[in-house]
């Protein structure tokens, strides 16, 4: 049985729950964009991780569907705002909210999504609510810090690998870690197990972002759902670019600099040129090796969890491994 079949009850219940969420009706210009981005789908990884972490200790995952879905609403709020900042044309193969409506609408609709996420978190049991809100607030602030660091990097000529890894830890990985920790807390897990699941999520999240960096350059456009080469076109400081600049000889560095500082260029030509330089420096292999380091580090964290349902842990591991080998 595939992992999708094993976790289909959770995933189906989650999709149904998200589909029935009510955000508001008037003015429709405020609420239609929320329904639009939530209906674009996605893998629902973050709320699913919360359900799977809860499922390590209890089987009645339906009890936490609303709090788990709050993580997905928050995540899509960040995507809506990130797309504005990145001037991204596509999200999951469809027009981004600011392209379909406008930037002002996307900002305001995103704000309402954040409010809705907090409203949904109020379904957390009263005795756990202060801790869960504190952890959520810490995570939300880190996500914003990571996004600001990412934007700051656009003005920097060069940044180190360590600084970049810390940025993606904040921007991407901590929310995965929180989702797992959150589900474990709601499932009455030991404090040390909840922390191990958080650490697992953070390391896996770093690996996932490195995978996204790689896919942005090497993915099949028909499968990817976003513009392949978008990071190259925007001069984003990705792991691939950072390592290329670090490893390039003077001639190769001049080649990279020439493309990075050009203001007028053909998008396809630039993507092909930078990708060719990555191939010359074997950056793809180096990225894959670094990804694997964080995936291995993550799996080490959950080797000795004291769970009630070991088959739930098998499902969590299987889902993670499937995501590691994804093509989009």
For the structure shown, list the relevant keywords.
328 residues, single chain, mainly alpha, two-stranded antiparallel ribbon, Farnesyl Diphosphate Synthase, 1% strand
What percent of residues adopt helix (DSSP H or I)? over 70%
What's the CATH superfamily, by name? Farnesyl Diphosphate Synthase
Mean pLDDT: 94
- Which secondary-structure class do the elements indicate? mainly alpha
CATH class: Mainly Alpha
Can you name the CATH architecture? Orthogonal Bundle
Rg for CA atoms: 20 Å
Straight-line distance between termini: 23 Å
- Secondary-structure element order, N to C: HHHHHEEHHHHHHHHHHHH
Give the total of beta strands: 2
**Continuous helix count:** 17
Please tell me about this protein's structure.
This protein is an all-alpha fold and about 325 residues long. It has a single domain (about 5-325), classed as Farnesyl Diphosphate Synthase (Orthogonal Bundle), CATH 1.10.600.10. It has helices at about 5, 10-20, 30-40, 45-55, 65-85, 95-100, 105-120, 130-155, 160-185, 190-220, 220-225, 230-235, 240-245, 250-260, 265-280, 285-300, 310-325, and strands spanning about 90, 95. The protein has a two-stranded antiparallel ribbon. Helix 3 (about 30-40) packs across helix 7. The mean pLDDT is about 95.
Task: Give the SSE map.
Elements: H1 3-6, H2 8-19, H3 28-39, H4 45-54, H5 65-86, E1 90-91, E2 94-95, H6 97-100, H7 103-121, H8 129-153, H9 161-186, H10 191-218, H11 221-224, H12 230-233, H13 239-247, H14 250-260, H15 267-280, H16 283-301, H17 310-324
Helix pairs in contact: 2-5, 3-7, 4-5, 4-9, 5-7, 8-9, 9-10, 10-16, 13-16
């Amino acid at each position: 049985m595939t992992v999708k079949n094993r976790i289909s009850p959770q995933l189906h219940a989650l999709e149904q729950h998200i589909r029935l969420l009510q955000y508001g009706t008037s003015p429709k210009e405020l609420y239609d964009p929320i329904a639009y981005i939530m209906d674009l789908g996605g893998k629902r990884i973050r709320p699913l991780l919360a359900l799977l972490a809860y499922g390590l200790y209890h089987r009645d995952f339906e009890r936490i569907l609303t709090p788990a879905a709050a993580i997905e609403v928050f995540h899509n709020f960040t995507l809506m705002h990130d797309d504005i900042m990145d001037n991204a044309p596509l999200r999951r193969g469809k027009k981004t909210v600011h392209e379909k409506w406008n930037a002002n609408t996307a900002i305001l609709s995103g704000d309402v999504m954040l409010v809705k996420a907090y409203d949904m978190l109020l379904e957390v049991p009263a005795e756990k609510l202060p801790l869960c809100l504190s952890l959520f607030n810490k995570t939300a602030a880190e996500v914003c810090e990571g996004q600001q660091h990412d934007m700051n990097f656009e003005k920097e000529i060069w940044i180190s690998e360590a600084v970049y890894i810390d940025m993606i830890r904040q921007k991407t990985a901590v929310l995965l870690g929180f989702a797992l920790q959150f589900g474990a807390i709601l499932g009455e897990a030991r404090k040390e197990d909840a922390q191990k699941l958080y650490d697992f999520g953070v390391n896996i999240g770093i690996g996932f972002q490195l995978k996204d960096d790689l896919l942005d350059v090497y993915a099949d456009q028909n499968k990817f759902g976003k513009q392949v080469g978008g990071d190259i076109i925007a001069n984003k400081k990705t792991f691939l670019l950072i390592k290329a600049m670090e490893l390039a000889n003077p001639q190769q560095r001049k080649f990279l600099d020439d493309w990075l500082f050009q203001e007028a260029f053909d998008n396809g030509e630039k993507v092909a040129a930078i990708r060719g330089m990555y191939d010359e420096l074997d950056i793809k292999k180096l990225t894959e090796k670094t990804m694997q380091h964080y995936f291995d580090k993550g799996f080490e964290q959950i080797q000795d969890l004291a769970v009630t349902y070991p088959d739930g842990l098998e499902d969590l591991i299987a889902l993670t491994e499937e995501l590691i080998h994804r093509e989009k």
